[in-house]
Amino acid sequence: MKAYMTNGTGDFLEKLAKKHPQQTIHIMSSGAGSLAYYEGTNKELFVAGRTYEVLVEKGNIQEEGFVAMNNIPVTEEGRPVFEDRFKNRKHEVDNMEGFQAFRLLRPVSGNTYVVLTQWKSEVDYDHWKNSGSFKKSHSESPTKPPAYFADRPFLTTYYMKKEDE
Protein backbone atom coordinates (compact mmCIF):
# COMPACT_ATOMS: atom_id res chain seq x y z
CA MET A 1 0.00 0.00 0.00
CA LYS A 2 1.08 3.58 -0.57
CA ALA A 3 0.54 6.74 1.45
CA TYR A 4 0.39 10.21 -0.04
CA MET A 5 0.82 13.60 1.62
CA THR A 6 0.50 17.14 0.39
CA ASN A 7 0.60 20.50 2.13
CA GLY A 8 -1.56 23.54 1.54
CA THR A 9 -4.02 25.87 3.18
CA GLY A 10 -6.81 24.27 5.13
CA ASP A 11 -9.42 25.65 2.71
CA PHE A 12 -7.60 24.30 -0.36
CA LEU A 13 -7.15 20.85 1.16
CA GLU A 14 -10.78 20.67 2.31
CA LYS A 15 -11.92 21.52 -1.23
CA LEU A 16 -9.62 18.79 -2.54
CA ALA A 17 -11.15 16.27 -0.13
CA LYS A 18 -14.68 17.29 -1.16
CA LYS A 19 -13.70 16.91 -4.82
CA HIS A 20 -12.90 13.22 -4.11
CA PRO A 21 -15.70 12.07 -1.75
CA GLN A 22 -15.12 8.41 -2.61
CA GLN A 23 -11.62 8.59 -1.07
CA THR A 24 -10.75 8.98 2.61
CA ILE A 25 -8.51 12.02 2.77
CA HIS A 26 -7.46 13.01 6.27
CA ILE A 27 -6.90 16.73 6.82
CA MET A 28 -4.53 17.71 9.63
CA SER A 29 -3.54 21.13 10.88
CA SER A 30 -0.75 22.65 12.91
CA GLY A 31 0.58 26.11 13.62
CA ALA A 32 2.73 25.77 10.49
CA GLY A 33 -0.12 24.90 8.11
CA SER A 34 -2.24 22.00 6.97
CA LEU A 35 -1.55 18.59 5.50
CA ALA A 36 -3.69 16.09 3.59
CA TYR A 37 -2.95 12.38 4.09
CA TYR A 38 -4.35 9.55 1.99
CA GLU A 39 -3.63 5.82 1.87
CA GLY A 40 -4.48 3.81 -1.23
CA THR A 41 -3.67 3.44 -4.89
CA ASN A 42 -4.94 6.61 -6.58
CA LYS A 43 -1.66 8.47 -7.10
CA GLU A 44 -3.31 11.19 -9.22
CA LEU A 45 -5.32 12.41 -6.24
CA PHE A 46 -2.66 14.97 -5.28
CA VAL A 47 -1.01 17.00 -8.06
CA ALA A 48 1.98 17.79 -5.85
CA GLY A 49 3.15 16.04 -2.74
CA ARG A 50 5.09 13.13 -1.37
CA THR A 51 4.58 9.40 -1.95
CA TYR A 52 5.53 6.69 0.55
CA GLU A 53 5.48 2.91 0.75
CA VAL A 54 3.67 1.78 3.92
CA LEU A 55 6.12 -0.70 5.45
CA VAL A 56 4.48 -1.22 8.84
CA GLU A 57 0.93 -0.40 9.81
CA LYS A 58 -1.02 -0.89 13.00
CA GLY A 59 -4.51 0.44 13.64
CA ASN A 60 -6.66 2.66 11.45
CA ILE A 61 -6.14 6.38 10.98
CA GLN A 62 -9.03 8.04 12.83
CA GLU A 63 -10.95 11.19 11.92
CA GLU A 64 -10.11 12.73 15.31
CA GLY A 65 -6.89 12.77 17.26
CA PHE A 66 -3.33 14.04 17.53
CA VAL A 67 -0.64 12.98 15.05
CA ALA A 68 3.11 12.96 15.66
CA MET A 69 5.36 12.46 12.63
CA ASN A 70 9.02 11.76 13.22
CA ASN A 71 10.79 12.69 9.99
CA ILE A 72 14.04 10.73 9.80
CA PRO A 73 16.53 11.22 6.95
CA VAL A 74 18.28 7.87 6.36
CA THR A 75 21.32 7.13 4.21
CA GLU A 76 20.87 4.78 1.24
CA GLU A 77 23.09 2.12 2.79
CA GLY A 78 21.35 2.53 6.17
CA ARG A 79 17.83 1.79 4.88
CA PRO A 80 17.88 -1.99 5.54
CA VAL A 81 19.11 -1.52 9.13
CA PHE A 82 16.61 1.26 9.84
CA GLU A 83 13.67 -0.67 8.35
CA ASP A 84 14.63 -3.86 10.15
CA ARG A 85 14.69 -2.02 13.47
CA PHE A 86 11.07 -0.95 13.02
CA LYS A 87 9.84 -4.22 11.54
CA ASN A 88 11.19 -5.99 14.65
CA ARG A 89 9.93 -3.43 17.16
CA LYS A 90 8.34 -4.63 20.38
CA HIS A 91 4.94 -2.97 19.70
CA GLU A 92 4.76 -1.48 23.20
CA VAL A 93 3.37 1.77 21.81
CA ASP A 94 0.37 -0.15 20.43
CA ASN A 95 -0.80 -0.94 23.97
CA MET A 96 -0.55 2.59 25.35
CA GLU A 97 -3.67 4.41 26.49
CA GLY A 98 -4.98 6.58 23.65
CA PHE A 99 -2.96 4.89 20.87
CA GLN A 100 -4.84 4.84 17.56
CA ALA A 101 -2.45 4.11 14.68
CA PHE A 102 1.18 3.58 13.66
CA ARG A 103 2.78 3.82 10.22
CA LEU A 104 6.36 3.42 9.06
CA LEU A 105 6.54 5.21 5.72
CA ARG A 106 9.44 4.77 3.26
CA PRO A 107 9.85 7.67 0.80
CA VAL A 108 9.50 6.78 -2.88
CA SER A 109 11.89 9.63 -3.65
CA GLY A 110 14.22 11.35 -1.25
CA ASN A 111 15.61 9.92 1.96
CA THR A 112 13.24 11.06 4.73
CA TYR A 113 11.20 8.29 6.32
CA VAL A 114 8.14 9.17 8.39
CA VAL A 115 7.24 7.37 11.60
CA LEU A 116 3.63 8.37 12.14
CA THR A 117 1.73 7.75 15.35
CA GLN A 118 -1.83 8.87 16.00
CA TRP A 119 -3.22 9.38 19.47
CA LYS A 120 -6.63 10.14 20.87
CA SER A 121 -5.15 13.35 22.35
CA GLU A 122 -1.89 15.22 22.77
CA VAL A 123 -2.02 14.27 26.46
CA ASP A 124 -1.96 10.58 25.48
CA TYR A 125 1.08 11.23 23.27
CA ASP A 126 2.82 13.05 26.14
CA HIS A 127 2.07 10.12 28.45
CA TRP A 128 3.75 7.81 25.92
CA LYS A 129 6.80 10.09 25.65
CA ASN A 130 7.13 10.15 29.45
CA SER A 131 6.47 6.44 29.95
CA GLY A 132 8.91 3.77 31.01
CA SER A 133 8.06 1.90 27.78
CA PHE A 134 9.18 4.90 25.70
CA LYS A 135 12.40 5.27 27.67
CA LYS A 136 13.09 1.55 27.36
CA SER A 137 12.45 1.45 23.61
CA HIS A 138 14.64 4.50 23.05
CA SER A 139 17.39 3.53 25.52
CA GLU A 140 18.90 1.27 22.86
CA SER A 141 19.63 4.44 20.90
CA PRO A 142 23.16 5.67 21.47
CA THR A 143 23.77 9.25 22.56
CA LYS A 144 25.30 9.86 19.15
CA PRO A 145 22.87 9.56 16.19
CA PRO A 146 23.08 6.21 14.38
CA ALA A 147 25.38 6.08 11.36
CA TYR A 148 22.38 5.54 9.09
CA PHE A 149 20.97 9.00 9.85
CA ALA A 150 21.65 11.25 6.86
CA ASP A 151 20.68 14.35 8.83
CA ARG A 152 19.04 15.31 12.09
CA PRO A 153 15.50 13.89 12.56
CA PHE A 154 12.70 16.36 13.23
CA LEU A 155 9.18 16.12 14.62
CA THR A 156 6.01 17.58 13.13
CA THR A 157 2.71 17.40 14.99
CA TYR A 158 -0.86 17.90 13.82
CA TYR A 159 -4.42 17.82 15.02
CA MET A 160 -6.92 16.01 12.86
CA LYS A 161 -9.23 18.59 11.37
CA LYS A 162 -12.90 17.75 11.62
CA GLU A 163 -15.09 18.59 8.65
CA ASP A 164 -17.08 21.22 10.53
CA GLU A 165 -14.00 23.16 11.68
From TrEMBL:
<dbReference type="InterPro" id="IPR007138">
    <property type="entry name" value="ABM_dom"/>
</dbReference>
<keyword id="KW-0560">Oxidoreductase</keyword>
<keyword id="KW-0503">Monooxygenase</keyword>
<dbReference type="InterPro" id="IPR011008">
    <property type="entry name" value="Dimeric_a/b-barrel"/>
</dbReference>
<feature type="domain" description="ABM">
    <location>
        <begin position="66"/>
        <end position="159"/>
    </location>
</feature>
<protein>
    <submittedName>
        <fullName>Heme-degrading monooxygenase HmoA</fullName>
    </submittedName>
</protein>
<dbReference type="Pfam" id="PF03992">
    <property type="entry name" value="ABM"/>
</dbReference>
<dbReference type="InterPro" id="IPR050404">
    <property type="entry name" value="Heme-degrading_MO"/>
</dbReference>
<dbReference type="GO" id="GO:0004497">
    <property type="term" value="F:monooxygenase activity"/>
</dbReference>
